[in-house]
Amino acid sequence: MFNVNKPRFRDWLMALAWLWAALPVVVLAPVALAETSAMQHAAKHLQPEYVCPMHPQVSRDEAGDCPICGMPLEPVQPVAGEASASVSVSAAMQHSFGVELVHVSRGPVAEEVYASGYVTRVAPAQTRDINSRVNAPIARRHVQGGQWVQQDEVLLTLDYPAYADTLKAYLDAMEQGAMQLALDLREQLAAMGVSDTVLAGFDEQQDLPDKLTIVAPIAGEIVWISDAETASQGERLVSIQAPALAEADLRSYSRLARGVGVGHRGRLHVAHLPGRSWQGKVVEVIHNRAGFFSSLLFQVEVPAGVLEPGAFANAYIDAGQRDQVLRVPASAVIYEQDSARVVRWLGGERFDVVEVEPGYAGHDWVEIRSGLAEGDHVVTRAQFLIDSEATLRAGLKRLGQPPVHQD
Fold this sequence. Notes:
Layout: H1 6-46, E1 50-51, E2 59-60, E3 74-75, E4 86-88, H2 91-97, E5 100-103, E6 105-123, E7 127-131, E8 136-141, E9 148-149, E10 154-158, H3 161-176, H4 179-191, H5 196-205, E11 212-215, E12 220-225, E13 230-231, E14 236-241, E15 244-253, H6 254-257, E16 265-270, E17 277-289, E18 293-302, E19 312-329, E20 334-335, E21 340-347, E22 350-361, E23 365-370, E24 377-381, H7 383-400
């Protein structure tokens, strides 16, 4: 039979029980020690005692030299009583970062909204012919083929004496109050090809030109112009190709485009034609699509053949102006999805991060409705570095706080 030594067997059981009881201490103690060491390691890097003034990524908990440039590490002392979002940056590090400050002041802010998207539709261009209404020599050509002209821009002048005589009789009738005669003479002038815009100008200025002026009825490109010396009644003098009407479907963040409405004007740019832009207007607005962006339908007249559907486009749209408001440079504002903040200089080596409420936002300036006061200083360069440092230090403080036990 198998003989078991009872005393020895009892000793083995007691040893095994002792090991089982000590196992959590042996295994978990290094884990707790590792967690404590990790926190201490993070604290040393987030709140270093010594930092290189030229390479802020080099930090140590004791004095020494920078391994990159060899400069002595400078001590960084925390400022007592700072808020959780404040940070101290030495003068040397400010110089290294290239920190720039600007006064918070009052002034005008023109809100200019940036939107981007694609050209969705281009209506075909139409050609308009201008025919002569009279037989007369062509005195002068004011435009040439390929030139872009605006509506009512002078195209040609004709040497037609009957025009000057009829115009003088018309102005005399207007001055004497002979309205029926003035209406009859106005119809004669219109039959010669004189536009209402030209006649309205004579009604106000009372000038008496001796040449019949032919003006552009629409804006567009001159695609053909007569080279004859004499204009014959019914013959074509000029052909103008009207601009194509293009529409672009643009997107912008709703918090930025909240002031944009139908009729607001702007300039459209396309990526494949750098340096060129066209004036247009917003014809439809839908705010808060998908909860965060605005859809803008932008319409613009362009020369024929310049744009095609699918071209990437962007526009700067004028959304209004506010006068004498509290403002900061646009580069000073750090945006997040639902908030905005700036880095404020407190004097010396101290900075803090301030939540602000932006108003009108332009290309150069942003209106500040709350959070700052006139005369404050804000950082316009390297503010992201200082903001990141303040955020890390605030996070470390929260990690170091004891947990709150609720009953």
